[in-house]
Amino acid sequence: MFDLGTQELIVIFIVAFLVFGPKKLPELGRTLGKGIRELKTAMRGVKESLEESGATDITDEIKTAKSNVEESIYKSIESHITEKEEEKEVKEETGTGRDLNGTTGEEGKEKKETDKDG
């Protein structure tokens, strides 16, 4: 559970013996054992109640929603790429080389230079 070796357990017992003393150590062990046992039974009960309530249905719904979101993202990216390719083809076919603002390459450069100056 905690992956404690023999040496670690011995050190823990020695420290507990020094801190709590020989009279309270057995009582402390019993209390600790009861607490761990109650924790295990509570965890088992929660696990069983989740299995009974149909937690697998919820995980299936989450997986379906995840795949739907992924699919819509891929479609959106794909349509954006397709639009860019179509714009590029139109520019090449017309030979105008106009950008999205409707200016040609030379006009765009002149416009940028005047923006920098003014």
Task: Give your account of this protein's structure.
The chain has 118 residues and is mainly alpha-helical. The chain has two domains: 53 residues; 38 residues. It is built from three helices and no strands. The protein is elongated, with a radius of gyration of 35 Å. It starts with 5 loop residues before the first helix and ends with a helix.
Strand content: under 5%
End-to-end C-alpha gap: 72 Å
Mean pLDDT: 78
Q: What is the number of helices?
A: 3
Radius of gyration, CA atoms, in whole angstroms: 35 Å
Topology:
Blueprint: H1 6-53, H2 55-94, H3 105-117
Task: Please provide a brief summary of the model.
With 118 residues, the chain is an all-alpha fold. The protein has helices at 6-53, 55-94, 105-117. The protein is elongated.
What keyword list fits this structure?
mainly alpha
